[in-house]
Known about the structure:
This protein is of the alpha+beta class. It has two domains: 75 residues, CATH 2.40.50.140; 124 residues, no CATH class. The protein has seven helices and five strands, in the order E-E-E-E-E-H-H-H-H-H-H-H. A five-stranded mixed barrel has the order 1-2-3-5-4. The longest helix has 17 residues. The radius of gyration is 18 Å and the shape is globular. This is DNA repair protein RecO.
Amino acid sequence: MDIPVYKTEGIILKKTDLSDTDRLLTVYTQKFGKILVRAKGVGKKESKLKFLIEPFNIYEFLLARSKNIDVLANSYPIKEFLYLRQNLENLALVIYFAELVDKLVVAPEQDENIWALIVRAMEVLDKPFKELSKTKPQAQARGAEPRTVPQSGTGAWVKTAFEKRLLEFLGHPSFATQSKLSPKEKLNYLQSLAGDEIKSERFLRSLSLIS
Length: 211
């Protein structure tokens, strides 16, 4: 009996070791929202897939259905965001966005708005930071642009825009109107929704990307 397989575009948000050779991938997909995928044998030296499961790229995944966690059969790169790995500030922001999505999105459910938000945020940050500083808020895709650029800089308005839109898409629009909240109060609010610490926020703070 053939094992049912299916395809979907997706972005790996997180990669966790299951064993010496297997990895658990947290993937946000275009068709199904957030899912878990088991990548078997990718830790072996001879594995052809180990270079095709990098976080923060867009892939087309071929997945085999399983009773528990679907298994990665193949992966095809669609778009690689090279500057996300060459610039620490850009990478720090994307790691933060990935953690927010992972911890705030609970169940697999297709959401084109969230998919587009993640892709657009990565497109905006996929450039040298000196070029990013020239990017105007008006250039952002639907739902991703803040009305004003915060005084703390470009990284801050990208972060603010992503947080606001993600929470709105998840049914928390009131957060977008709470402009008077301090950074600490906003973090506490996000962590209360996530039910967990947002660990990558400390990384942003260490790089002075947020106050």
